[in-house]
């Protein structure tokens, strides 16, 4: 942020974060690249798939916590790979045990393994169970404003509609619905999935999103660490542009310098 402007922190479930970019840990070449990209992103919240990541349950195997230490980052275990509410709830409870009572989780319940689109019915059921069980639930969902409102009513601490399909890199396919969700929400709204490049992250923030969560856009870039740095700047720029307020669109040109008072040769 510039010296003359200090933004309020992102607040999720009683926690405050200076960075509005949240990142994942999958698809990198190795843990060293994972670590370098996370550092370059400036992210404070790091998400990982409980079912696919070793955080100590596999003795002797590379441990994510060696490069993403809990005393430096806020860990966000997620339920990637779950297709039923029951599996998602079980996975969150496993993460809570592995992380000594950690209760901030990212819930995602998928409809199929082709689109990875959220199963809204199962997501709603899992969210209600987890909230009642004391979890702080950040939830991946469709871009349906009614579903987003219901997830907030259940008690989710953040609603995370997809920009487009997970890993597709297609950007924001339905900015109008995202804006509807943002306008009605009383909890943070973060775009989760579909971002492909920095300009799309900036656009999400310009729409009024509170943050952006991404993995593939960084990990699948030709230079992931450089892309992580670009995403950091894009999220910051988009946030400042949103707060500054864009100029109105006009049907005709308007000169930057007024005609009145000009010097005639």
UniProtKB/TrEMBL annotation:
GO terms for cellular component: cytoplasm. Its EC number is 2.8.1.10. The active site is at residue 106. It is an enzyme of class 2 (transferase). 1-deoxy-D-xylulose 5-phosphate binds at residues 167, 193-194, 215-216. This is Thiazole synthase. It comes from Halomonas cerina. HAMAP family: ThiG. Pathway: Cofactor biosynthesis; thiamine diphosphate biosynthesis. Residues 12-258 form the Thiazole synthase ThiG domain. It is found in: Cytoplasm. Catalyzes the rearrangement of 1-deoxy-D-xylulose 5-phosphate (DXP) to produce the thiazole phosphate moiety of thiamine. Sulfur is provided by the thiocarboxylate moiety of the carrier protein ThiS. In vitro, sulfur can be provided by H(2)S. GO terms for biological process: thiamine diphosphate biosynthetic process. Homotetramer. Forms heterodimers with either ThiH or ThiS. Belongs to the ThiG family. One of its GO terms (molecular function) is thiazole synthase activity. It catalyses: [ThiS sulfur-carrier protein]-C-terminal-Gly-aminoethanethioate + 2-iminoacetate + 1-deoxy-D-xylulose 5-phosphate = [ThiS sulfur-carrier protein]-C-terminal Gly-Gly + 2-[(2R,5Z)-2-carboxy-4-methylthiazol-5(2H)-ylidene]ethyl phosphate + 2 H2O + H(+). SUPFAM superfamilies: ThiG-like. The keyword Transferase applies. Keywords: Cytoplasm, Schiff base, Thiamine biosynthesis, Transferase. Residues 246-265 are annotated as: Disordered.
């Amino acid at each position: 942020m510039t010296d003359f402007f200090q933004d309020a922190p992102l607040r999720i479930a009683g926690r405050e974060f200076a960075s509005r970019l949240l990142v994942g840990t999958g698809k990198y070449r190795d843990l060293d690249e994972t670590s370098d990209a996370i550092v370059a992103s400036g992210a404070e919240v790091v998400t990982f798939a409980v079912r696919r990541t070793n955080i100590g349950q596999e003795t002797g195997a590379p441990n994510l916590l060696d490069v993403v230490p809990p005393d430096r980052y806020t860990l966000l275990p997620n339920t990637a790979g779950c297709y039923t509410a029951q599996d998602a709830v079980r996975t969150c409870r496993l993460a809570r045990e592995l992380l000594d009572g950690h209760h901030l989780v990212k819930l995602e319940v998928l409809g199929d393994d082709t689109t990875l689109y959220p199963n809204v019915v199962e997501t709603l059921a899992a969210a209600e169970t987890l909230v009642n069980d004391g979890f702080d639930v950040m939830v991946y969902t469709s871009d349906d404003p009614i579903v987003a409102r219901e997830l907030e009513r259940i008690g989710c601490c953040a609603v995370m509609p997809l920009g487009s399909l997970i890993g597709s890199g297609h950007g924001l396919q339905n900015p109008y619905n995202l804006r509807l969700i943002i306008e009605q929400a009383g909890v943070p709204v973060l775009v989760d999935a579909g971002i492909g490049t920095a300009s799309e992250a900036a656009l999400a923030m310009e729409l009024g999103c509170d943050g952006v969560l991404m993995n593939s856009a960084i990990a699948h870039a030709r230079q992931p660490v450089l892309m992580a740095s670009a995403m950091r700047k894009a999220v910051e720029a988009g946030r400042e542009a949103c707060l500054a307020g864009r100029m109105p669109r006009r049907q005709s040109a308007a000169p930057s310098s007024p005609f009145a008072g000009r010097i005639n040769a």
